[in-house]
Amino acid sequence: MTQLDITQAKADLSKLLDLAIKGEEIVITQDNKPVAKISPIVSMQRPLKRGSAKGKVQMSSDFDEPLEDFREYME
Questions:
Q1: Is 5 strand, coil or helix?
Q2: C-alpha dist (Å) from residue 7 to 10, 30, 31, 60
Q3: What pLDDT is attached to residue 65?
Q4: Which pLDDT score is estimated for 17?
Q5: Hey, which CATH number is domain 1-41, 2.60.120.10, 3.40.1620.10, 3.90.470.10, 3.60.15.10?
Q6: pLDDT tier at 2 (50, 70, 90 boundaries)?
Q7: Domain ranges of the chain
Q8: What pLDDT, in 10s, does the model give residues 30-48?
Q9: ∠ CA 11-16-22 to the nearest 5 degrees?
Q10: Chain centroid to CA 68: how far?
Q11: Does residue 27 contact residue 33 with C-beta atoms inside 8 Å?
């Protein structure tokens, strides 16, 4: 993990982004205290497939029944 002062980070932002793209985490400090972190965005391990949640989602049997709170609007 790389640690830089905020003034140095301002001057080298494009280099820091290149490091983050390569997987490096960069901590930006001010007065020797960490204030921000630049880190890579991890992409998904595998693409989602249609139907991958089959059997994991359940819907109540009265899902599309009118709600009691709205009964007066239905009449």
A1: strand
A2: 5, 8, 11, 57
A3: 85
A4: 92
A5: 3.40.1620.10
A6: confident
A7: 1-41
A8: 999 999 999 998 876 777 7
A9: 165
A10: 38
A11: no
The one-letter code for the residue type at 46 is: R
Mean residue pLDDT across the chain: 88
* Cα–Cα nearest to 9, from 21, 33, 24, 26: 26
Indicate whether 75 pLDDT > 80: no
DSSP per-residue letters across 45-74: SS---TTTTTTT----TTTTSPPGGGHHHH
The pTM for the full model equals: 0.55
Whether residue 55 contacts residue 32, with contact meaning beta carbons closer than 8 Å, is answered with: no
Closest C-alpha to 3, from 46, 43, 42, 32: 32
Give the pLDDT of residue 44.
64
